[in-house]
Specification:
3 copies of one chain form a homotrimer. Helices cover 22% and strands 42% of the residues of chain A. The first copy, chain A, has 141 residues and is of the alpha+beta class. In chain A, strands 1-8-3-5-6 form a 5-stranded antiparallel sheet, with no helix packed on it. The first copy, chain A, is elongated. The termini of chain A are close together.
Chain lengths: 141, 141, 141
């Protein structure tokens, strides 16, 4: 049984962004695991992590458009000290979630052909975002 | 400590479907575990996994109706190559999520009385859906 | 490797509520773990667990307001035997989810500065809610 934990820091402009390659580059330990789980945890309340299509950039733009319409900035929130993107970002973060658990099989993430890891930045100026990666599993023989 | 991992394949028509029995039938290993976690991971971006009411079929129909209204097919998506159900399916998949972690206690899934595992098929013709089941935990004495 | 599992019972009025302190008070075992995961699982289909802002109560009120607007009580649901808050509660539960996985590092939950654990009660009279806490990880030297 292996446990491995580290923090990675990413910064993206507002929108939905593919981060699979950066996550993998930071986690070479996955190669040692025959069966296990990679857990990603975003330490913030105004951004989120999700899994979705890894090919067409238009999927990521449509996601941004959908969530801006579904969680409008002009909805008279009580919590508005940091501007109109503040409270919608909190709501989107709870809808999409801030953690992912992905199986590891035979030294690789067991993602589907079309699945990619997304960092979803809901603030106009979100700055650095910390992600705790926890890898657990059985060691390869 | 036990780790167990397998793939199961399910196919359902569009809508929300109870799959608890099929998941359990494929995972007899749970019986050996005194305390642990069963992790389910759907390898797709246009369907999802969720937990909800296991009794009334009308709950599953109302969920389908709600998500069709909240994520409409006629919203002028950029990503529409595969038809009007394509992009809404991606959005629903990110809202509902594609993985579940359920505790195992005393050789059984520790679901609440009314909780069932759902496969939510968001495409009109989704075809086969692969689910990776990872079971981890302490072995019963 | 440590596995620890227990049930905690909480009761809250309708709305979004911070429960971080109560969860921690019930899980002193976290202190023994150098790297691991705390998994929380709500055994219900009309409430949910989420992570969001731990400071301003107005964030929690705005979340309640948003989800009441996004999942209206007067939407002609088939499933309405238990009143107008019944089916919306099921929908909110699937959107927000009923489980959380939070990393443990150096004997502490690795939450971000502003992150708190929420119990989201979607029924008018939800009563007691059972949460299974599963703690797993490597023991401190």
């Amino acid at each position: 049984m292996i446990w491995y934990q580290k923090e990675i820091i990413l910064s993206r402009r507002r929108g939905f962004h593919l981060i699979t390659d950066e996550v993998l580059r930071n986690c070479p330990e996955i190669k040692k695991i025959s069966a296990g789980i990679m857990h990603l945890f975003l330490k913030h309340t105004s951004a989120s992590l999700s899994l979705n299509e890894n090919a067409s950039p238009d999927v990521r733009r449509d996601l941004e458009t959908h969530f801006n319409r579904a969680v409008p900035e002009n909805a008279s929130y009580e919590h508005d000290l940091e501007g109109p993107d503040d409270m919608p970002a909190h709501i989107k973060s709870s809808i999409l979630g801030t953690s992912l658990s992905i199986p590891i099989s035979g030294g690789k993430l067991s993602l589907g052909t079309w699945q990619g890891i997304y960092l979803c930045e809901h603030r106009n100026y979100g700055g650095n975002r910390k992600i705790i990666v926890t890898v657990m599993g059985m060691e390869e023989d």
